[in-house]
Every structure is written in structure tokens, then in C-alpha cells.
Amino acid sequence: MATAKVRIAARLRPRLAHETPDPGDPRVCHAEPANTSTSSDPGKGKGSANTSLTANSSANASGSSNNGSGTFTGIAVANPRDASQIFRFPFTSCYDADATQAAIFDADVRPLVDVALSGVTVTIFAYGVTSSGKTYTMQGPRDDPGVIPRVVETLFAKTTATSGTTEKTDIAVSYMEIYKDDVYDLLVERENGRKLPIRENDVGAVFVAGLSSVPIDSVATFDKHYTTATARRSVGATLLNDKSSRSHSVLTLNLRVRAGDKVREGKINLVDLAGSENNKLTGNDPSRMAESAAINKSLSVLGQVVHALNTGAPRIPYRNAKLTRILQDALGGASVGLLICNLSPASKFRQDTLNTLNFAVRTKNIENKPVVNERDIRPPPPPKIDLALVPPAPAPKPRESLAIRPGVSARPSLVPRPASRTSTFGLGLGGVGAPFSRVSSISATGVPVKEKEAAPPGLTEAEIDARISRAVEAEVARRLEEREREKEREAEMAAAAQAGSSRAKSPKPRKDRDGSSRSPKAKGRELPPGLTPLLKRHKDLDNELQARLQELERKFSLGNKETALADVLSPVSKKKTGRAYVALARAHSEKGDLQVALELYRRAETYVPDNVKLKERIIEIEWAVKNDRAFKPSPKRTKTKKGGKTKARAEEVGEMDVDAAAGHDGENNDDKKREQEQPLSDDQMEVDEVESSLTGPAAFGFGAELTNTGSKRSLVDAGMDTQTPAKRPKRRAAEKNKMRVVAIESDEEDEYGPAAAPRKSRRRIAAT
Ligand SMILES: Nc1ncnc2c1ncn2[C@@H]1O[C@H](COP(=O)(O)OP(=O)(O)OP(=O)(O)O)[C@@H](O)[C@H]1O
After folding, report:
1. What is the SS3 assignment for 604?
2. What's the chain's Rg over C-alpha atoms?
3. With a 6 A CB cut-off, is 275 part of the ligand 1 pocket?
4. Is 119 annotated as a binding residue?
5. Is residue 128 lining ligand 1, measured as CB closer than 6 Å?
6. How many angstroms separate the CA atoms of 600 and 494, rounded?
7. Is any ligand 1 atom within 6 A of the Cβ of residue 382?
8. Atom of ligand 1 at shortest distance to CA of 11?
9. Is the CB of 144 under 6 A from ligand 1?
10. What's the 257 CA to ligand 1 centre distance in angstroms?
């Protein structure tokens, strides 16, 4: 998609009862004849009497005409220090006091709904001085709804219109406020609300971790959530506005449009910014002053970001405020942006109005690079099986072929493929995600043969299953024979050695593995160089193997490939795979993709079926999905350090705490303290352990993607041991016998920042 500049719509609100008119007040001009004009910065301009100055804008720097026809459309406002000087700010879209909510919506907002449904992120934000009408524009009163309710209504009207088609749209909402530079979820009870951290995922997208996302299936459902959440927003009375927003609010509508084999994921961010305010005018008390300072600071950072983008600065200060961090995508990112510039007609706000207009003029030069989020949702092709040398099944059942359909492109598995490994039963399954074609073929003589890429076409599933079974049986038989021969040799050598030593000295009873003492003579009688006991063992194994193969076949025939894979993996691989799924699930649940998260947790359970905490997690998410409720992932865990000290868990899996990097290390201290007081249950530890394994380099080769990169500085701050990982193994080895792992996960980031390779430390602590 090409670049797209941020669109600007200027809206002048009507005068309130107590506001008296003044000739220099801002005025909306619709195609008025353009007079003398000088390209100038209105904030600094000092023109002669009756001079009309046009705001400096690269879009229209050459004159007062903004449409090439000698007319001007935009906002005209007098200089507060020299009323004879009129500044003109050209905007193609501007609305005067008579403009209706519907007019603004239809002209500027409605087209963006289609853009979002096409898989693009759209951000619409209202900007302006306090009491300029931002909340009125975004939210609106019940009898005159603003942008937010209208967007939702339009979305549902559009999805209803496509209900007869193959297109299906899922909509979910999340709603947060940024109050005194802390983020809170407005969809949860205020008492339960905790400060939410801002994080960055593995592809650099910024998101608020733990923010709930509620699926909505109708305007009425949305209304219910929205009304409750809006009542939670921080609002207070000031001398300038008796219902002044004391926070910035961001309402996000997540759209998922499924059409055939494709899914598009668009988003609409609807932002109602708190208004800049002059404390001399607002009459703020100390608490209002603190709010006001936070509002003004974040808006000032917003201005700096816009300025840096306009001047092509090498560093854009997004990280200097939560607000800009969250709006990063809308300002120079991959979003389509609309800034609604709200203006107050009151004289006392004249300078603020000029500031607002200057900000708007600068913002409209920002270029974004919108991205369409569309992906193929066809299921991955069935695994290929190398069956070239396995003899054909005697009686194949006519079932659907597992052979890959021609023309269907393979999609990468959710779980990256590890290097192929050979299991104890000789199946080189290569772990989860590896195609069955990686199974080493076994020749009739039991010698593994080179892998081939494509399975012979036209085989039924039954044939494939049968061939796998025969291949496994052949390999197991070969290995058992080898083992028996080995044992025979050992037994013969032992007998010969004992016979030799018995001639030299009297026999000494020797303890066997089972603890029984037997004389070499007796042993010789029980274990002659013959094969009887070995064959017995062989038979046991055969039965065991047979049962296992039957179980495998049963599961394959049920189509439960996941379970079957879990069964044939080694315990270590099972655990690793489970960990990988848990980490992915957690990342999805934090993003609000509860359905996907649930599916991933269920898959994880296949690999670690005994994990009680995991079961609980599944039940919780199932409940949340079923009841359309938000799911709050468990807070960061603490772990007990040797000596009884505690510390906050470094990071969540798969994310980087961008706050620390942004210099907000001191935040959330209360939350951390609370977390430190929560002991970890063993089950939770197991889940954490499952997640933490992803940080290891051996985690299927994708550890780096999901690796937690907590900062070393934060560990130092928390009073933690920051000994380098290289030294740890020695200490661990010494402690190994008296310690047990009760909590793992302390990921450290190189002190030079997140760009450096992440390292992982595992801590062992004393058994309790
Ligand atoms: N277009 C409009 N038509 C009628 N009344 C309006 C309009 N815009 C704003 N108002 C009124 O102006 C007052 C201030 O509006 P609003 O609370 O929306 O301002 P705000 O910019 O959100 O202020 P703050 O930044 O302090 O939250 C309210 O009483 C509101 O009803």
C-alpha cells in the first residue's frame, strides 16, 4: 500500500451560554476569496494591520488559496496579541458550529470504516484545548451520538449486509485510559484495575499487555459495555469544563473478517485525548494540578513527536510518554490516521486555539505507510510420509488420501521445526511441526534409508498407518536383536572372567542390580549364555510395543494427530513442545485472541497432560470465551530467592518490557510489591517453567523470537543476582544435589539493550 498522510478535520464547537462573541474569534471559511497572504508561522508572525497570514504548510505554502481557485477554505483566527492580524489555516475538511455529528461522520469517518474492514489499522483522534468539544465529537450525548457509537453502528450494518455471503466478521472491543501516564483497562471494575504495561511483540508492534478484549455481536452488546466503561473514565470538574476528561481514552475495535480462505484483521482506534489546559484558567487544586501536568506533558510529547516526524529527525521520541507509545502506529506507522481538531470559539482560548491549529497543520504532513493485514487460513497440508520402501498394506481401506493436494502451498506450522531427532523407537519424527516425510524409512533389512521428500501418491490413511506400524515394528525388532546380541556377549565375557577368577580365589557373593546376592555358579545356572531371559524380555517389549502401536493407530484413525505426536515424542521433547504452545497461547491471550489462545493451550495440554495449572488456565479461558468476558492472564510471578528474598518475575514470555527501556523503571512499584507477596504454587511454577523453556536456544530454533528480554538494570534494581550465565553452571553443579527447581524464568537482557542477543538464566533454589 502507498503512503497516506494523516487527514485533518477541523471542528469549531458552538458557543456556550457564558461565552461572549469577539470579532477575532476563530471562524470557519468555506471557499472565501483569498486576500493578501504571507506564508508564515502564526505563532510568531508580526504582520501589519489587516494582514491575513496563511499558516505554514508544505501542502499549501505558496498562498492563501488552498484549492488553486483563489479561494480559501479553513480556519481564520486573530492573533491574540494583535487582533488586526488574522491567521489562516487551510484545511479541506472543516466544520462550523452548525455542523452535525452525522455530517462529520459521513464525510470523514465513514470511509475509514471500509478501510478498517479491508484489514488496515485506522486511528481517529480528537485533539484540542479543554472544553473544545473532543468528548462531544467522539462520544456525544445519547440523543446526538458521536463518532464512536456511529462507527459501531456502521460496522454492524455492514456485517449484517454481508451475512448472506461467505464473509463473516467478528468484532471485539477493548477500552483503556491513560491517566497520569498510567494505562488502565476501562472494561474491568475500577477496584480490580491495575496499571497495565506497554509492550512490544516479536514483530515490533506495540500493545498493552493484559488489556481485555470483549467480543461484541450487536450494537446493544457494545452499548452495554461502552456505557459501563465510560462511567469508569476519570472525569472531573474544572472551572473550564464541569465534565473535563482527566485522561486520554483509547477505544479499539478489533475486526476479523473471514472471506473464503483469507482472513483480514483490521482495527479502529478511537482516541479521545484529554485537553491541554492552562492551570491559571482551570483553577485546579493540587490533585487536578497533578493530572493537568500529566496531560500537558503527554500532549507536549505528542507535539515533539509530530515535530520530529516533520523534520525527519533521526529519533522520534515516542517513548517519552505512554500516549505517544500507544499512538505510535498512527503517527508515522502503519495506520491510516484522522485527526479531528476541535476548536473552542471562546476568546480566552485564542492562544490555545492557535497552538491546536499549528499542531494540526504540522500533523497533516505526517506520512504513514498503511499495511493490509491479510493471511491465508487454509489448514496446513497434511504431513508427507516417506513410504517408498515400506511394503504395501495387504487390505487398504478406501479412505481419504493424506497426500498433499497439488497446488496447495504449505504454511509454516505454529511451532517451528526442530532438528530431526531419532526417538528410542527409531522414528525420526523430528518433533512437532516436522512433516512425517522426515521419518527415516526402514528397509526390509532394518537399515534406515535416505529420506525422500514426497510420499507416493494415492495411498490411503489406513495404508499409511499400516506402513508406519510395520516400519516401527521392523526397526524395533532389529534393535532388540542387536541389544540381545550385545547382552549375550557381555554375559559370556562376564562368565569367562568369573570362571577365571574363581580358579584364583574363593568366590565372593556379588550384589546384582536387584540387590540379591548370588554366587557366580548360581548365576551361571540362571543366566547361561543362552537367550531364554532375553527372549522373555523381548516378548514383553513386543507386547508393550504392540499395545503402543495399537494405541497409535487408534489415535491416528481418530484423526488426533496432535495426541499421536505427543505419544511418540520423548518426555523432554513433549515438555518443550508444551512450553512452546503455552508461550504462544499466552502471547495470544494478552493480545486478546482468546479463541486462538485456547486452542494453543489445549494443544499444550496434549504434551503436558498432568499440568494442573494448565488445565485451570484452559477452564478459565473457556469460561471467558463462552461468556464473552475478558480474560486477565495471571500477573507477573514472583519467585523466592535463596535466603528467602523475593523478586518480581523479570518479564512475560515473548515480549519486551518497553517501559524499562523508556525510562519508566519506577512505575508499577505498587503492583510489583503486591506480586512479590504472592507465593507461587507448584502448579503455577510448572506453567512458568513450561513458558520459560522457550528462552533457551534449543527451543525449536525460535527461542529468539519469543525470548523474553528483561533488562539487566531492572534485575539490579530488584536486588537480584546478576551473575553472568557463564559462571552459573559451576554453582549449579555444586548445588545440584541439595536444590530443586521450583521456579524458572529469569531472563536477562544484555546491558547494552534489547538489540543484543538475549540470554537466559535459570535459577535453582533451595527446596522448601
Ligand atoms: N458540537 C457541539 N454542540 C453542542 N455542544 C457542544 C459541542 N461540542 C461541545 N459541546 C459542549 O461543550 C462542552 C465541552 O465539551 P467537551 O466536554 O466535549 O469538551 P472536551 O474537549 O472533551 O473537554 P475536556 O478536554 O476538558 O474533556 C460540553 O458542555 C459539551 O456539551
Report:
1. helix
2. 34
3. yes
4. no
5. yes
6. 53
7. no
8. 1
9. no
10. 35
CB-CB neighbours of 501 under 10 Å? 13
- 206-208 vs 198-200, strand pairing mode: antiparallel
pTM: 0.53
Ligand 1 binding pocket includes 14 (Cβ within 6 Å): yes
Say if CB 383 and CB 14 are below 8 A apart.
Answer: no
Which protein residue's CA is at the shortest distance from atom 10 of ligand 1? 133
State pLDDT tens for residues 18-52.
Answer: 888 888 889 999 888 876 443 334 444 333 333 45
The answer to the question of whether 570 is labelled as a binding residue is no
SS (HEC) of 385-432: CCCCCCCCCCCCCCCCECCCCCCCCCCCCCCCCCCCCCCCCCCCCCCC
C-alpha span between 606 and 623 (Å, rounded): 20
Task: Tell which residue, 318, 738, 532, 439, has the closest CA to residue 430.
Answer: 439
User: Can you tell me the ipTM of this complex?
Assistant: 0.98
Which one-letter amino acid corresponds to residue 92? Answer: T
∠ CA 231-234-238, rounded to 5°:
115
Nine cell digits for residue 546:
504392540
Close Cβ partners of 513 (under 8 Å, ≥ 6 residues apart): none
Is the Cβ–Cβ distance between 158 and 113 less than 8 Å?
yes
DSSP 475-499: HHHHHHHHHHHHHHHHHHHHHHHHH
- Measured in residues, the chain has a length of 768
User: Probe ligand 1: pick from 131, 139, 177, max atoms within 8 Å of CB?
Assistant: 131
Q: What are phi and psi of 263, to 5 degrees?
A: -130, 135
Q: In this structure, are residues 1 and 86 in contact, taking their beta carbons and an 8 Å threshold?
A: no
Is 132 touching ligand 1 by the criterion CB < 6 Å? yes
How many angstroms separate the CA atoms of 276 and 354, rounded?
12
- CA neighbor of 78 nearest in space, from 353, 359, 356, 344: 353
Ligand 1 pocket mutation pick from 13, 245, 353 by most atoms within 8 angstroms of CB: 13
The answer to whether the annotation marks 130 as part of a ligand binding site is yes
240 alpha carbon – ligand 1 mean position (Å): 10
**SS3 at position 25:** coil
- Record the cell numbers describing residue 32, joined without a space: 472565501
Closest CA to 638 of 745, 550, 513, 534: 745
Provide the residue type at 619 as one letter: I
How far CA 399 is from CA of 403, 458, 551, 564, 722, in Å, comes to: 12, 10, 20, 19, 59
CB of 130 closer than 6 A to ligand 1? Answer: yes
Best probe residue, ligand 1, of 135, 244, 298 (max atoms within 8 Å of C-beta): 135
Give the separation between CA 290 and CA 284, rounded to whole angstroms: 9
Residue identified by cell 459501563 is: 228
pLDDT band at 591 (very low <50, low <70, confident <90, very high): confident
Whether 131 has a binding-site annotation, put simply, is: yes
Highest-confidence range of 327-331, 543-547, 610-614, by mean pLDDT? 327-331
CA of 156 to the centre of ligand 1 (A): 27
Can you tell me which atom of ligand 1 is nearest the CA of 246?
A: 27
Structure confidence by residue, pLDDT tens digits, 278-315: 766 666 677 778 888 888 889 999 999 988 988 888 89
* Amino acid occupying residue 321: A
CA atoms of 88 and 64, how far apart (whole Å)? 8
Chain position carrying cell 465513514: 110
**Burial degree of 260 (CB within 10 A; 0-12, 13-18, 19+):** exposed
User: Is residue 342 lining ligand 1, measured as CB closer than 6 Å?
Assistant: yes
Type and span of the H or E element at 78 = strand 71-79
Q: Which three cell numbers stand for residue 256?
A: 476479523
